[in-house]
Amino acid sequence: MGILKIALYLILAPFIGGFLAGIDRKIGARFQGRQGPPLLQPFYDLFKLFEKQSLVVNGVQDFFVGGYFIFILFTGCLFFIGGDLLLVCFALTLAEVFLMMAACSANSPYSAMGSQRELLQMMAYEPMLLLTAIGFYIATGSFMVGDIAQSSVSPIAYLPGMFFGFLYILTIKFRKSPFDISTSHHAHQEMVKGITTELSGNILALVELAVWYEDVLLLGMVGLFIVNMKWWSFLIAAAVCLLAYILETFVDNLFPRVKWDSMLKSTWLVTLVAGGVNLLILTLVH
């Protein structure tokens, strides 16, 4: 069963991630009064990137991008086979470190600035990410995703503040405005493409593919708040995941990008108030 889950994640996640990227573009186009590209446009772009020649800055950059891709796959597989949620958080952080080091290895001011901002983003969302894992443990008595998914009551009943805080940091993880400071798919980014400026061809395609895998993983963590031992809870969780992604897309198109200090202050405030208070109450109740 574990091998089947891994196979399903590796095969289906890119299709789900690419389709969600197409929905994102459609919604963004509608906000600007345009028809927008077809839903399958992200797949066309990805295939085009794989066909293009890569301009390699240095050999170590390819190594770090490969490490980023492998650790994203490892993290997603670990999550969907019901592994340790705390290890999932650590592995996801390690994947981001590989991407940041790939940007640092290039002799480019835009890439270097993007990697510095990526580090600031990690400082912003990591406390809430770890707090969420701890909250799941206190609410269900286990760090194992499989055990959490088989709880008698959906974890969101005990973790409403954690759920709000996790949705807040998803804006950073999805690289959407107002927190798309290290790189962005919008044209208003003053650093060109920031952390991915020096990536091209199939190397850039590999990063884009890893982002789709990561998006599905993050939405899976959203669904973990909803699922329980009842089979129909998985259908509700899938609907909540879709609504969460659409909400993030709306936020992306409605709010202007903020400076890094505003991102840190607001994220830590949400972590302290929503996550910290929820954790305190949960500890007292249990």
Automatic annotation (TrEMBL):
Q: What is this protein called?
A: Formate hydrogenlyase subunit 4
- Compartments where located: Membrane
Report any Pfam family annotated for this entry: NADHdh
Q: Which GO terms describe its cellular component?
A: plasma membrane
InterPro entries in the cross-refs = ComplexI_Subunit1, NADH_UbQ_OxRdtase_su1/FPO
Q: How does it sit in the membrane?
A: Multi-pass membrane protein
Which species does this protein come from?
A: Caproiciproducens galactitolivorans
The answer to keyword Hydrolase applying to this record is: no
Q: Which residues cross the membrane?
A: 6-23, 63-81, 87-107, 128-149, 155-172, 203-226, 232-255, 267-285
Q: Which PANTHER family match?
A: FORMATE HYDROGENLYASE SUBUNIT 4 (PTHR43359), FORMATE HYDROGENLYASE SUBUNIT 4-RELATED (PTHR43359:SF1)
Q: Which UniProt keywords apply?
A: Lyase, Membrane, Transmembrane, Transmembrane helix
